[in-house]
Design brief:
alpha/beta; Uracil-DNA_glycosylase-like_sf; Uracil-DNA Glycosylase, subunit E; 4-stranded parallel β-sheet; 3-stranded antiparallel β-sheet; single chain; globular; 49% helix; Phe_SMUG2-like
Length: 226
């Protein structure tokens, strides 16, 4: 199995669940579900089929309807088939906003094969978080941040060291996420520089009239790292 793909599959499928979390928050590992793991395996062995170091582009934590179903970061079921060419039997729900934005960027940069050759899409905290059945962000509660901090340190360290990511730069998707990624990096000293971009969902919800300009900003920023 390809080097990067094998390491990614191992990282996501074995990352530990926390014993418990405060404020009614639960952590879920979709990668331990055979159907999700198989879709992730197909994606990884298609697009991560080499040992080339990639730039980490890290979001917050996976959503239950995107990566939680497909195993692939910022990729809902529709995008997994339409853009990545991976067939499946998952129901087609309303497209995820973040997915729509990311794949506009991906396509502007030459499509999935070209994009994923240079970039790794992942998350600061790699498991799904939910509260009362809805998506939850790790930074929405100081108590959750405190409880998850050791796991977040482990997550970043493993992604850099075990996946073989580039260490000259990393990209945060989201400004609040960037604050915590910088704090983690200050503690661990893994990346030389952190670049922070507005989160795709924020741009789609509140800056959609500037969609073309926002996509162009992403393309130019990421393109400058090649």
């Amino acid at each position: 199995m390809p080097h990067f793909a094998k390491r990614l599959l191992h990282f996501l499928s074995t990352f530990p669940l926390p014993a418990s979390l405060p404020d009614g928050v639960e952590s879920l590992s979709p990668f331990r579900e055979p159907a999700v793991y198989e879709l992730l395996r197909q994606f990884a062995t298609t697009y991560y089929a080499d040992a080339q170091p990639r730039v980490a582009v890290l979001g917050i934590n996976p959503g239950r309807l995107g990566m939680g179903r497909t195993g692939v970061a910022f990729t809902d079921p529709g995008a997994l088939t339409e853009y990545c060419g991976i067939a499946h039997d998952l129901p087609r729900a309303r497209p995820e906003l973040s997915t729509q934005f990311i794949y506009q960027v991906v396509n502007e940069m030459g499509g999935p094969a070209a994009f994923y050759q240079h970039f790794y899409l992942g998350s600061v905290y790699p498991l799904v978080l939910v509260r009362e059945g809805l998506n939850y962000n790790y930074y929405d509660s100081p108590a959750v941040i405190k409880a998850l901090w050791p796991d977040m340190r482990l997550s970043i360290r493993q992604q850099v060291q075990e996946l073989g990511l580039r260490t000259d730069v990393a990209v945060s998707l989201g400004k609040r996420n960037g604050t915590f990624l910088q704090r983690l990096n200050d503690e661990l000293g893994l990346f030389e520089k952190i670049i922070v971009l507005d989160h795709p969902r924020y741009l789609m919800q509140y800056r959609r009239r500037d969609l073309a300009a926002n996509v162009d900003h992403y393309v130019k920023t990421l393109g400058s790292l090649l």
